[in-house]
Amino acid sequence: MYTTDGLKFTANLSLLFPQVPINERAVLAVDAGFEAAEFWWPFSSARPSDEEVSAFISSIKSSGINLTGLNFAAGNMPEGDRGLISDPTKVDDFRSSCDVLLHIAKETGVRLFNLLYGNTIQGLSADTQEKVARENIRFAQEKVAKAIGATILIEQCNPRENARYRLAAPEDAVKVVTELNAETPETLGLLADVYHYAESGNDPIALINNHFSIIKHVQIADSPGRNEPGTGNVDFAGVFAALIKNDYRGYIGLEYRPKGDTLEGLNWLA
What we know:
The chain is built from 8 helices and 9 strands. The protein is globular. By secondary structure, the protein is an alpha/beta fold.
C-alpha cells in the first residue's frame, strides 16, 4: 500500500501501466503494491455491451483491488471530448451510461464518480448548455448519488489542455458544487486536481486551503507535462502539507502519464 505521512494513494489506471489493455492493469497495480485504483470511463462508448461491462467488473474483482473512483461517460476523450452533460444531443447516451455506472458501483462498491462538464458547442447558447448540464446533474444525483449514497465530483480543467471545457477556472467548479449542493445537499463534491490548478496559473496550495470544505477527492500530476511528481514545478511537499493540515482522509489519485516505466516512475513516493 502506498502511503506517506498518513496520506494514501490510488492508481489511476486509465493512465498508469499503459503497456497493457485496460482490463489487465488492476493486476499489475496490485503486484506493484497498490490496494486502490480509479479509472476514467473504461469503455469506448457510453453504451458498452454487457460483455464489456462484465469483463471490466471481473478484472476488478479478480485482482482484489479496491475501486475508489470512476468517471461518468465523457465522449471521445482522445478526440477532445470532455463530458456529455452539456450537449442536448447526448442526453440519452449520458443517462444510459448512468445505468452502467450504477451497476458497476453495486458490483464493486465504488462510491466516487467524476462528472466532466463538457465543452462549449459553437452555435449553442451558454444558457442552453448550462440548463442541460444542470438537468443532467440532477438526474445523476437522483439516479446514482442518492440511490447508493455516492458522491459526484465536479472539476475544473485548464484551458491550455482544452480551451473549450466549460469550467475553465477553479471558481467555476466551486460555483456549480456550491449552488447545486444548496438544492440537494452533500451529493456533489469538488475534485481538486493539482495539475489543472497549476496549468491554469493558480496556486494549488491556496486553492486547497480556501475550498477544503467541499473537496471530496484530490488528483495529482506535475506541471508542465502531466507526468509524475518531481518532473515539473509543482510544490508537492506544500500540497501534501496542506492536505495533512486540513486532515484530508480520502485517497489521492495518481492521474499522471508516466514519462517512462510506471514502476520506475513510482520512485518519487520514497
